[in-house]
Amino acid sequence: MEIKNDKMDYFVHETAVIDNGCKIRSGTKIWHFSHIMTDCEIGESCNIGQNVVVSPGVKLGRNVKVQNNVSIYTGVICEDDVFLGPSMVFTNVINPRSAVNRRGQYAQTIVKTGASIGANATIVCGNNIGEYALVGAGAVVTKTVKPYALIVGNPAKQIGWVSEYGHRLNFKKNHIAVCPESNQEYEFNPKDNTVKRIK
Predict the structure, then answer these.
(1) Does residue 105 sit in helix, strand or coil?
(2) What is the pLDDT of residue 104?
(3) Which tops the pLDDT comparison, 2 or 51?
(4) Distance between CA atoms of 153 and 138, rounded to whole angstroms?
């Protein structure tokens, strides 16, 4: 087991498997029966739950939380502060066939900073998840998700907007909403159907 980190300043459970060529940053914890495959990059203070597979070349940013039974396939990039719920699923080939080798055709999926994906959700490859978006449990994502969007269902549809703290945003006539926990303010732009944080 070769890990490119000068100090063993992260935790790996004795049942986990770490392949050669991985880069694992300080403060990360990797739990029971997980497999981190070659050339992965895992940022600081990540938590990799039980029975997780991180495939070759996957990149995880800082403070990514991966719950139990998640497979993160080649082509997936998770930016900082991403949450991946229990047993959620990524794909990386649009039209898989057992008899056809499509290893060179993996589609890229980017999960942007602060986004959360609920338990048992499925992300069809090539559909990026915007900053601070919230994908509901069991949703099947077949389209790119906008920043701050709240999406649910199969196929997933947007039903609202959420704050960076994960609360539903209720916009007033002036198109401003306030997060009830953080008091952060957000503005809705009806022209392009987007939300941004303004304070």
Answers:
(1) helix
(2) 85
(3) 51
(4) 7
Closest CA to 71 of 33, 19, 114: 33
Instruction: Give dist(CA 181, CA 175) in Å, integer.
Output: 19
| Residue 139 contacts residue 153 (beta carbons within 8 Å) | yes
pTM above 0.90, yes or no: yes
Contact between 107 and 126 (Cβ < 8 Å): yes
Averaged confidence pLDDT in the chain = 95
Taking phi first (over 0 means left), then psi (-120 to 50 degrees means alpha), and beta for anything else, what does residue 61 get?
beta
- The H-or-E segment that residue 15 falls in is none
| Peptide bond between residue 147 and the one before it cis (omega within 30 degrees of 0) | no
Which residue is associated with the tokens 């490119």?
4
State how far the Cα of 122 lies from the Cα of 115, in Å rounded to an integer: 14
Tokens 């939380």 belong to: 65
> Cβ-count burial of 14 within 10 angstroms (0-12 exposed, 13-18 middle, 19+ buried)?
exposed
Question: Is residue 129 a contact partner of residue 149, using CB atoms and an 8 Å limit?
Answer: no
Amino acid, res. 147: P
Between the alpha carbon of residue 17 and those of residues 20, 47, 69, 143, 153, the distances in Å are 10, 15, 15, 34, 35
Give per-residue burial for 152-174: e unless 16+ CB within 10 Å, then b. beeebeeeebbbbeebebebeee
CA terminus-to-terminus distance, the chain: 47
